[in-house]
Every structure is written in C-alpha cells, then in structure tokens.
Amino acid sequence: MTIGWYPGHMNKARKDIIKLLQRVDLVIELVDARLPYSSENPLLNSLINETARLKILNKTDLADPVVTNLWLEFYKQKNITPYALDRTQPEAIKKLLKTARAVSGKKADKVLRIMIVGIPNVGKSTFLNILLDRKVAKVGNEPAVTKSLSEINLGDSIKLIDTPGVLWPKIEDQQSAYRLAVTGAIKNTAIEFEDVALFALDFLRKDYPEQLADRYQLLDTSLEASQLLEAIAKNRGCLRKGGVDYHKASEVLLNDIRNGALGRVSLEKPELTL
User: Fold this and answer.
1) Burial of 70 from C-beta contacts in 10 A (0-12 / 13-18 / 19+)
2) Domain that holds residue 125
3) What pLDDT, in 10s, does the model give residues 140-159?
4) Is residue 179 domain-resident?
5) In 108-148, which ranges are E strands?
C-alpha cells in the first residue's frame, strides 16, 4: 500500500505560509521527537529559506530519552540549536519567547512576528495554548484539527501566527510515510490499519521487544509480525465470528503507541539521515 494524504486545506495553507513568510521574523518549527527525520516537512525548508528558526523536538514524553539525546547531539553538530520539550514542561515552553527574540535579532521595542509550523498532529495547538497560558487553539489527538491560519497578539510586541499541519503532496520515502502513520500524523481514513500495525510490529520486535512482551504478555517476540498481531488479538479479546479481528487488534496496538501506553518509543535514529 502507498501512503499519502494531502487534503485541500493543506495546499491552501502552504500558499498562505509563503505569503506570510515575507513579514515573519522567526519560525518555530515543531517535529515529533519520536521521528524527527520523517516529521520534518522538506517543503518547509525551502519555504522558510533564510528566516531565523527554532527547532523543537516535541512530545519527548513519548520518545525514548536515549534516542532523543542522540538527536539533540546530531542537530548541534549541524549548528542547529534544538529544544526537547513536551506538554509537561510549561515553564520551559514559555521561556522560548525570550530565546525567540534573541535568535531573531529583533530589538525589544520592535514587533516580533513568530510563525509556528509543523506537520499534522505534532502538538502545535497544545504548544501554543501553553505558550499563551490560555486555550486559544483547538486540541485533538488526530491530524487536521487546525485547518486555517490564525494570528494572535501576545503583547510585549509579539505576534504569533498559528498554521495548520502541512504534509507534502507526495511522500517519496514510504518508510517515512509508515512511521508517520504509526504516530497518527496521517488521518486514519487514509491508511490500512493492519498494514501499519504490521510495520510497527516488525520494528518493535527488533528494537523494543521487552516493552512489546510486557504490554501484551507475549512469550516470544521473535515471531513474524503477522503472528505477533494474532497473539495480541487473542490476548486482548479482539475476536469475531470465525477467527480473530486483525483490524481491532491493529487499533489497539497503534493507540498504545500513540498515547504512550506501550512505553517511550522512538521510531528512528540519526543514522537514518546518512
């Protein structure tokens, strides 16, 4: 199966971002700490161009902390200053505004315009609500919650522009597409649950076998992904007339990964970029 998802509102958002970037002083780019490579929109690099940027590895509470540290070192070696954050660190998120002005080079008496960008379901709305200390953006654990741009006057001569999550028209690297689907960055109606679950299980049985075994009481995680999915289905009572319900078992697995019930898992390491 080829995975891709690019609804009309994303194309409109891309065009709006291009227009607005002409008067933006700084871009705050959020990527998912579980897959920083795959969750970085390659189109954004060309759109942002020379505009000052802060890179946020978001949702670190769901990512493997050892792997997150590897990514932080990776970006530092590329002369990029990254920040590893999640929703449990409101004070650290709020301090970014001071960093933002310093990075942008904008003087304190001048209006600082900041644009927040990232792919769907990377946590932009939650990040924005914490940054502003009030609920101004709709939050949901699914992509495409924010569908239009909004501009917010923060005070202290700071204006924020929140943008919808934007993917790219064609995801060439289907391995990345499957990782995005695992974390919920691609709408569920655009994927086959069983295919994505099998992809996830093939990865987990190699990189996180103990967490997989503990969560689903599996005796042998070296089994093929299809056999593991069947075992999970039986363990969780995902049954239907005539056999197991693979779709329901796939939903259980993917939801456990997305909400952290399986434990802290990272789907890629920096060497993937080489």
Assistant:
1) middle
2) 8-162
3) 454 444 455 678 888 788 88
4) no
5) 112-118
